[in-house]
Design goal:
This protein is mainly α and 144 residues long. Helix content is 68%, strand content 0%. The radius of gyration is 28 Å and the shape is rod-shaped.
């Protein structure tokens, strides 16, 4: 379903141009926001794979040491504290990634709405030239 562009009356032509410029700026800013946020989320995800509690080396070394000294309460307390800190860090990173994904979704919604408004108010999508925009005004079309 295609819609015709929204054309405001001539007396509001200046308003339409301001709205079009604002929609384009919002699209650029929200697009840049989404790109930066997506890069940060990918970086956090890759970092999270390295710091996963399943691959933590120190607790497994301490557990091996606990096998040789099962009555050492200090070692048990150290293992519990380390385990708690590893788990807390893991859940903090997961929550941060979830908040980032929510922000990314919001940024994408703003981007889509601003692109839609930009095209409805008579413009093209930002950064995309129409087929005739690059042509010379005095050039003639030749049909074959």
């Amino acid at each position: 379903m295609t819609r015709t562009p929204l054309h405001l009356p001539i007396r509001d032509q200046q308003l339409r141009l301001h709205l079009l410029a604002a929609a384009r700026r919002i699209a650029w800013v929200s697009g840049a926001f989404c790109v930066v946020l997506a890069a940060g989320l990918v970086s956090m995800h890759l970092n999270d794979r390295e710091q996963s509690p399943l691959v933590a080396e120190r607790p497994s070394k301490l557990m091996a040491e606990l096998v040789s000294r099962p009555e050492d309460e200090g070692l048990k307390d150290e293992i519990r504290a380390l385990d708690a800190s590893v788990r807390q860090g893991h859940f903090d990173r997961r929550a941060r990634i979830q908040r980032g994904a929510t922000l990314l979704l919001g940024g994408l919604i703003v981007l889509v709405l601003s692109l839609k408004a930009s095209t409805q108010w008579g413009g093209t999508t930002p950064g995309v030239l129409s087929a005739s925009a690059g042509a010379r005004p005095d050039a003639r079309r030749i049909s074959v």
